[in-house]
Protein 1
Amino acid sequence: MKILLVDDDELSRSSIARFLKNNGHHVIECSNGMKALNRFSQEKFHLVISDVQMPAMSGIELISQIKRSPGGQAVNTILISGYDKPELTSDIDNTICAYLRKPINIEQLLEIINRLEERLWFFL
């Protein structure tokens, strides 16, 4: 699965990316929402995993913009945060596949991704 991973915390981002890569996924890392939007406009992704609180653009804003962009409605999304579940805007609340609190239970994340991947194969 091709995954766009967005988190301003380099240690968190790199450890999640390493785990996902070791489990056979192709992961592109971005340190902020603007870089992620730029990358999303250039490439197709099956999944976007984004931290909620980041400078300049929150993960919620990022997901909102992705969902409004060409091809964005088909992309699965997971939000991660060190805080309790935020209030989501109504236009993306139903489009988030999962919300995980940091520190991420990496096995739980992999289970969610595997379920999403099974669903993707079903629709191909």
Note: The longest helix spans residues 106-123.
Protein 2
Amino acid sequence: MDYTSLISNLIKTGEGKRLVFLSQLRMDTVAKNVCGLINEEGGDLLLGISSDGEIVGLKGATAKVDELSGYLNKHVQPNAPISVSLVKYKKHDLIWISVWEGAQKPYSFQGKIYARTQEDTSKANNEDLSSFILQRKASEFHWERQSLLGLEEDGLSIRQVEDSILLFERKNPHLRFSNDPIEFLQYMGLYQNGHFTNAAAILYAKNPVRYLPQAKVRLTVYADEKSSDSFLYDRLYESNLFQNIQDVFDYIDVLFGRSSYISGLKRTERQKYPIVAVREGIMNALVHRDYSKVSSTVHISIYSNRMVISNTGILPEGLHIADLKREHTSILRNPDIARMCFVHDLIEMLGSGTQRMVKDCKTYGLTDPIWKEDGDHLILEFLGLGIGEGVGEGVSEGVNDVVIEGVNDGVNDSLNRLITLINTTPGMNAKQLAIAIGKGHSTVERYLKLLRENMLIEFRGAPKDGGYFVLDK
């Protein structure tokens, strides 16, 4: 992404409690300032800019990024999520460091604790230390950190925990957990006092809704422009966060499909929807939702003319709807969940995600995303991003009233959903259709055979890359 506008806005803002400029790269000076930011409200540090905002650039910045990242992750303790990136600005190389406010204060560098004021970074005094300790105690009572009684190790997806360990160790090569899931979860604050936390269940439990009903995600595809009982797809995703993300993204990819472009002898594909904007919107809903309420929900609704993503939990104090279209600070409601999503490269710490969404929508010819608050919900709307007008009127005359003799009403309902989906997104194969309607592959193969035998659909193309199409009847 082009960060020119973001950096320009930061320079105009000037240094403050959440923003530091350094003209040179000195590891210890950088570490002290990063430590101070983490102990306070989090923020950003730009290397290659003088304190008065003059762009001086950094020589050899490209070779220093990995070294600096490793140094900070090793020497700022306890370990915290720190993002180090090389950015280009007006032909100069800069290094951008971004951090969240830490949940395990106080943080130290070389055994010393630092605090960030509006003007500078300095060693923490006794008043600062008392404040950090109180904040740490408060974070331990946060919903994420509360113990979840009843969840044992065999109730976790250990494979997913091991995946996280591998990704974490790649970012922090000086740390090793010997594939010990409990040691890793304890280090990340997800296992405390002999119990797994609520956040651990949201992230890794095999069946989190058994303990936390609010872990589920609902996705509904409606046949027209309004919510009604006439829908093409309605499913509750009740697995852990990582599995839900995978399943939801898989379905949306299948639903909207891809476009193929041929240039010379080269064929390329891209999604038919603004994938960056949609995924960013869904991730924001999942990471920033208010999980503390049992009635908490994330509902993804896809209509014929728009997509709506709704989650419980309005914007944090200090952040407003108007801020979302410009550079803004990243304020976390669920830092433990956010940190693991950062480890998996599902989110960034830069306050640029909503701006990427705006840019991606424009690339696809859509209007800017619309955010609004409704009661205790935050709602995101993508106008023009739907499955097409008139879907609920029938694939062709009589299609939505297909009744095949010899099968029950439930199967006939699934057959009609398949026909409608094939007409909406022609060319899908059996595997994609199975994902789309939430049925097993063998079951969908059986349904497709019934539809072919009754001359309602046909398969076109080669076995490996062909798909199903509705016959004109």
Note: The chain has four domains: 4-134, 144-211, 214-383, 396-470.
